[in-house]
Please model this.
Amino acid sequence: MDFVANREVFLPAINKVIGVVERRQTLPILGNLLLVARGEGVTLTGSDLEVEVRTDFPATVKEEGETTIPARKLSDICRNLSDGAEIRLRLQNERCVVTSGRGRFALGYLPAGGFPTMEHEDRGFELSIKERELKRLLDKSAFAMAQQDVRYYLNGLLIEVNSSSLIAVATDGHRLAKFVVKTDLAVDAARQVIVPNKTVMELRRQLTASDDEVRVWLGEKSLRVFVGPMTMTSKLVDGRYPEYERVIPRDVGEVAVIGKDALRHALSRTAILSNEKYRGVRLSLAEGTLKLLAHNPEQEEAEEEIEIEFDGEALSGAFNVAYMMDVLGAVDVDKVQIQFHSGNKSSVWRGLGAEDETFVVMPMRI
Model:
């Protein structure tokens, strides 16, 4: 194998695939990238056995071939070369030799035959969605996924497909996020899949706000996403997701409308004196005002008051400040609406007028 490529196409390709390569591996070859030089370009692949990312970039191929090279070392070398540098990579004397200008780097490699690749399922269906819509779907919901929960099915994002919409749902048992994209999909029956946390986060990193079409293949055990020259393949979580609609309160009383930035700043200040372990802040709603209260075991207290649009009966409830801040980060309009009945009931949050999004924050005792 012997090829020459410009740093400005080689390095972005490495950045596309290196996100799935774990620093600590059970198999040494999973710390490597698979390089296949054919025709007028090179195919790069990274994998951790659960998620695989593959992409192509143009190159002058002097000798076709394939090998696997340490991912982090290759990335570090290319990143530290000057802009526009020409990079030559070839196998020589049982080493992979990377040269650029007067620099020469001899790396160890492992045979390409030992690199595990994920097979494509024949059974399933394909749908298309604009890249910005898919990114928005993930950004609006992924923050509520669980992290290493024993309920393994919560460590991922539920994607529900029906004939009129694409729905994303995430919950960790303390909060829930649901977002709906209205679209016309040619599917006979509703289908649910659970996409692993790592796959969701890697997709969020890769996607942009373009209007390009993204193709998504949903199989019985795997997911495949095609974004330009990149293909991401992932195993799905084998499990049954909870009936999330039962978690979303239906009768939640009057709506309070609050400026998003004003609430965010007030929460940040009040949380300074909240209990460091539980991070609870009490919200007290009254006509025209919202009072935020926090205290900690050192008997310190914080109190803040902001103007809101609310004319219902006075009520209050305590919620985790980090969960509330995550919701505000997912809202992309200037005002947020909050609804809840009392301190022992869940609160429902939305951007003002944004009926396609639903955020539920469970109450807590402080």
